[in-house]
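Q: Can I see a sequence and its folded structure?
A: Here is a first one.
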Amino acid sequence: KTAIRAFARNWTGGLFAPAPKAGRATRYYRQMSRYTAAFAFISDIAFLTLGGELKRRELLSARLGDILSELYLLSGALKRWEDEGRQDDDLPLLAWCMDSGFATIEQRFVEIIENFPARPVGWMLRLFILPFGRRRHGPTDRTIRQCAQIILEPCPARERLIDNVFIGGPEEPVARLTEAFRLMVDTQPIHD
């Protein structure tokens, strides 16, 4: 069942993976479903073929841990976006997180497949998990520029982003940066 799910979701690029209706973020839920299925499959195969030796294959188990960590962080990003009311203004930040995380996940899959101790099993894993090779390469320049704009200009998305950041007293570095940002915004009309 895990193999069929991983095979189908990866060969279709997650196109038919279950996902909630979330507008432009629906594709991220589909990709999460795709990578989760791939992770479950590759973990099963690693346990079945290596057994207790997997523990001694530290680089392999570390890469599996990296994938699991990325999936956890990305699910947290989606949860925060949901909890904050699916704000369209936050989509560039969500896109940056998801694109960066998906690129890391695919890179770790490639590293596991290329270094899998049983080469025939590695070839089979490539067929199931990355049949068309690595497709994710991180956020686009456009997404990076949009995120920079959110961070460098006062807007509701920026306020939501820094809402729970510990500022500290006036002598703390973060407090100084926050004050410098406020002063920059206040003096912007003079520069224009």
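Q: Show me another, different protein.
A: A second, unrelated one:
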Amino acid sequence: MKSIVIRQPNELVIEERVLPEPAAGEVRVKVQLAGICGSDSHIYRGHNPFAKYPRVIGHEFFGTIDAVGAGVTNKTVGQRVCVDPVISCGRCYPCSVGKPNVCTSLVVIGVHRDGGFSEYAVVPAKNAWQVPDGRVGQACGNGGTLHDRRQRDRAGDAEPSRTWR
């Protein structure tokens, strides 16, 4: 598969990479749309102290699930999804008070692990939010907005919907 890789600050290449397989609890997304953001520019220029290189950037992306890892029961091949880039532990103090974006074990897709500037991306199944067929992918191109929406869902008493509206 082709990926846009930042090998080190100010060095961007298109690289052929091995198609990743989803591990337990993960899904593989065939990327159809990826947005570019100022955060991506900071990583490219070496201005993000948390970025690890080489890195496939892109934390705002949409696509279709084409493979599921072991133990994933609520996602299916063919589902259209937006990806929430914030991977948090769910157990630390910040997570317990609804602030997973400052989790003590924070991992951000496209910063700490490879993101959506690739033909395929592997992400935790819990971070892949179903997009109804009537919605266009551009509606979920902003990962930050998606993450904020997810946090508002979780702040209520009801179990959050796993479908992005």
